[in-house]
Structures are given as C-alpha cells and as structure tokens.
Amino acid sequence: MIPDPVVEQHREGVFVVRDDLVIGGTKRCFVDRLIEGHREVVYASPAYGGAQIAIAYAAAELGVLATIFVAKRKQPHARTLEAKRAGAKVVQIPSGYLSNVQAKAKSYCLASGACLLPFGLETPTAFDAIAERASHVARIVGPLDEVWSVAGSGVLTRGLQRGLESVRFFVVQVGRSLTRAEVGQATVLPCSQPFEEDSKAPPHFPSCSNYDAKAWEPFVRLGRGRRLFWNVSR
Asked: I need a labelling partner for 140 at 20 to 30 A (CA). Which of 3, 7, 104, 183 fits?
C-alpha cells in the first residue's frame, strides 16, 4: 500500500509535496500496477534516473524480476547501485547513449519475452495514478496560482494538470527538449545544468540531485502567489 502524499506548508501559501518520503518516489504510486503479473520487466534507464529505483523496489515486493539496462560506467551511479541492492538485475551497455541502451533492451525483450516498460513509464495507468494522487493534494491545499515540477518525459506534469486546480503550471526541463504535447499547458523553463550534474541549489529536504532538486531554485526565485512544488523523490 503506497501512503497518501505528505504536503508541507513552508510558509503562507507555499506548499511542498514530499514524495521523497515514499520509497521509490512518485513513480511508486503506479509502477506496481504496471509490473504486476509479469515474470520479468525491463527498463532502459539513464544512469541518473529515478525510475530504476521505483521499479526495483516494486518488483521485489511483487516477486517480479526487474532488469535495468543502463550505460556502462567505471563506477555505476548510486541510483543504479540502489536498484541492484533492491534486487534488480543490472545490464551495463558499452557505448551507452540512451538510444543504444533502449535498442539493446528492446532486443533483449524480443528474445526473452520479458515486458519492456516505456521511457518515463508513460502509460494511461501512470497518468491516472498521478492525477489521483494530485487530486488528493488538491483537497488539502485548495486552488493554486502555480504548480512547479521537473520534467524529463513530461508524464508527471500532464498527470498533475489533470488532478490539480491551478492558474499556471511550470516545468523545469532536465535533459532532452520536450514538445508541447509532452508538457500540456505547462510553461517550460530549460535547466542550465546538464542532467549528469548535481543541483547547485538544492532544497533543504531530500530531493533527487540530478532531477527535481533543479526545479527548486527557480521555484523560489520566480514563483508567485499560492504555489506548490512537487518533490518526486530523494
């Protein structure tokens, strides 16, 4: 059972969703539903990605084998090592551009019959679960002027837009450029730091250093009115 979201009020009209308190973060609110009933699930992950952790913990709990394909590094990233400790099988791919990692994962699934999970875990199940979680938050905080989140695939912000009542949505783009279709009605603010770098101005609570922590500085600097920051994971 995934716990209800914890919402903290940091000062008048400023709210933070603390999904870092959930093992595996926001993605754990739906990844269990995606993998249940499968023998093996496969995910092609950026080395710094958080989905690999959510998948690993969910798979361990459900008795499913999680296989994570990731670019080969001299020293695997801490998140990949956490996924491995949680029970995932890690396959490191040399010349590991994400496109090559994804191609190798797809070939593996075609040969083995394993279930290939889509990038960003983009599925109707994900959107429904995020919207449901956001609706729970909406009942706590009420109408907002702004909702801030990070975006790698755009799945999170599109789910939040279905569940939260807000005048404006902002996403800090980490990694590749996102299309309008991928971010819905959100305003996109590209992050000046590469994905592989840790945030230079992280929040005072645990936040993924390569990902949602990078949205905190613009949230503090540019945010106005009643606003909410969605912290995805630790």
From this structure: 183
Please give the model's pTM, rounded to 2 decimal places: 0.89
Q: Indicate left, alpha or beta for 63 from its phi (over 0: left) and psi (-120 to 50: alpha).
A: left
What are the structural domain ranges in the chain?
Answer: 7-23+123-231, 28-121
Amino acid type, 217: E
Report the amino acid identity of residue 9. Q
| CA–CA distance, 190 with 10 (Å, rounded to integer) | 25
Low-confidence ranges of the chain (pLDDT < 50): none
Alpha-carbon distance 41 to 34, whole Å? Answer: 9
Fold classification of 28-121 is: Rossmann fold (3.40.50)
User: What is the C-alpha to C-alpha distance for residues 157 and 183, in angstroms, rounded to an integer?
Assistant: 6
75 Cβ contact list (under 8 Å, min separation 6): none
